[in-house]
Each structure stands twice: as structure tokens, then as C-alpha cells.
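Q: For a teaching handout, I want to show students what a protein-ligand complex looks like in C-alpha cell form. Below are the inputs, and the small molecule is magnesium ion. Please produce the holo structure.
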Amino acid sequence: MKTFIFDLDGVLVFTDKFHYQAWKKIADGLGIYFDEKINNRLRGVSRMESLDIILERSTKRYSAGEKEDMAEEKNNYYKEFLKKMTPQDVEPAVRETLAELRRLGHKLAIGSSSKNTKFILQQTKLMDMFDAISDGTNITRSKPDPEVFLKAATFVGDIPENCIVVEDAIAGIEAAKAAGMMAAGIGEAAHYGKTDYRLEHFKEILEIEGI
Ligand code: BG6
Ligand code: MG
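A: Here is the structure, written as C-alpha cells, with magnesium ion included.
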């Protein structure tokens, strides 16, 4: 039996588009150029680090307090999207795959940098699928640091060598490998060199050899 550790945004739910739209509002308000390509660099990294990436293009320097306010404003926009989420925002293939993995006896955990993780899992009624949740509220360093995945393994009581991480972010694949885990990549992460299993579709998780 394996432990599967799932990233949340961009893997189980498509909240990555909401992150983009919320940051875009902040960037536009500040007159800073921001596009989907820059947004890809925000995948997997914490809220404050994301803001620092956006502000790289600003000529102005902002105080820590101003940055806190911007991050809070972004999160308020973002939460407006999350409030509208329902169980229908989870693709049937995702729900079916998670149910099948559980039926086979594997342990399932979340490994996400987001502090909104529990709210999203409640909105989409995914909470009961998981044996443990490691998220932005229990880490001090975000991906590519392995902390969030190592904590997930500890929470379910498994060793890193027995864990398979499912990720859409390059930073997440880096974090999984740094944790000594196997990494399955979806989306952009499927094409990354360090990815062990390249997934075209979520259901292909069930075809991973030896599970
Ligand atoms: C990750 C996203 O899952 O969570 C990042 O990929 C985001 O883009 C990070 O910055 C933190 O999210 P939150 O919800 O705590 O602002
Ligand atoms: Mg992600």
C-alpha cells in the first residue's frame, strides 16, 4: 500500500484560475504587468512569495505593512471565488479516482501551500476523502522546500519512500524529490525532467505500476 499526497490547487480543483484573476486585479491596480506566464511561477509558492514575484516588475519599493495589505486584499478577492465553489467543481474523474485509491487500501493526504485548503475541501465536500491534511497553516517554508510533504507523511505515519506526490507545479515536483518521494506530474509538471510519472489524465494515477 502506498500513500498518495495530492497538491490541491491545479490538481484536485482548478482554483489556479481564481488565484490568477485575484492577483491580476492587484497587479492592474498597481499598474504592474502580469500575465499567465508570470502566473505559472506562482504555482505552489506561498501567498507572500507570490506577491514578491509580481512586485519584481515594480519600480516602487513597498513596506512590509503595504505588502501585508496587498496580500490580504488579494485573498479577499480570491475568497469571493471560493465561496461560490460547490461539489460540482470537482471533476467526476477526480472523485472516482480518489474513491478507487481508498477502496484499494491506499492512504490519501493533501500537501498544499494554501492556507485556504480546508475551506476549499469543505466547499467541494472532499474533506472525508483524506486521512491527513498538510497545508499552508502548518509549514514555515513553501515548495520547493519538502516540508509540506514530509509533514503529510508524518501525519499519516508513513515513510517518504512509500509516498507518491501528485503535482501540477515544477516547485511541487522539486519539493517531492527533495522529500525522497516519487512524483507524478500533471499539466506543466508532466513535462518536467524530474517527474517520475507523466499523467495526461487524472485517472492514469490508477495505472501507476506497482500500486
Ligand atoms: C498554492 C498555489 O497551492 O497555494 C499558489 O499554487 C498559492 O499559487 C499558494 O500562492 C498559497 O495559497 P493561499 O490560498 O494560502 O493564498
Ligand atoms: Mg498546484
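A: Two things your students might notice: The longest helix spans residues 64-83. The radius of gyration is 17 Å.
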